[in-house]
Design goal:
InterPro entries: Nckap5l. The protein has about 45 residues and is mainly alpha-helical. The chain is built from 1 helix and no strands.
Amino acid sequence: RDETKLSLERLKMELVESSSLVLENEQQRQRYEQCLDEIANHMVQA
C-alpha cells in the first residue's frame, strides 16, 4: 500500500515536471516565431 502511494507521488511529480517542460517549450516556440517575424519585417523594410 505504501508502495502504491509512493508510485502515485512519483507519477504526480513526473506529470508536474512534464507539464512545465511543455509550457517552457511552448514559450520558446512563441519567442522563436516572434524572432522570425521581426527578421521578416526587417527584410521587407530593407
